[in-house]
Specification:
The chain is mainly β and 137 residues long. The protein has strands spanning 9-11, 32-36, 40-46, 55-60, 63-70, 89-96, 107-111, 114-120.
């Protein structure tokens, strides 16, 4: 599933809602898998080198926003790259949760560089409701 072309993938903007203004503010999008199990929608995000304290997850309506910052403290100040494929700095991705799931009940766990978010199926509201009848008024 390609994030950019997926209907689940919503945006790649800065935290302020607009594209980054300078190269120093560049954002990146982590590799993400989204799949369905019997009872949940599962979102798995690859975030090697990060601590769970550096991650922020928020739910707004049917959108799950994942943001954070991967520190770049592993290289020397005067290094010259021959190949650079690892992204550092701030990231943000917004995933639109499809109908039938309840993002407000999501549960997240972080282990071995992977963030996993389980979003349960929404419990349908009952169509009929019994009204109790009390004694005389």
């Amino acid at each position: 599933m390609c994030k950019v072309n997926s209907s689940l993938y919503y945006a790649q903007t800065s935290l302020a809602g607009s594209p980054p203004e300078s190269a120093g503010d560049a954002h990146w999008i982590p590799n993400t898998d989204v799949y369905v199990t019997e009872g949940n929608l599962v979102i798995k995000v690859e975030l090697a080198g990060m601590r769970k304290e550096d991650l922020e997850l928020t739910v707004e309506g049917n959108r799950l926003m994942i943001s954070g910052q991967r520190p770049d403290g592993t290289r020397g100040a005067k290094c010259k790259f021959l190949v650079m494929e690892i992204n550092y700095g701030p990231f943000e991705c917004v995933i639109e949760i499809p109908a039938g799931y309840d993002p407000s009940q999501a549960i997240a766990g972080y282990q071995n560089g992977f963030l996993q978010i389980d979003v349960p199926r929404a419990v349908p509201a009952p169509k009929t409701k019994l009204v109790a009848v009390s004694g005389e008024k």
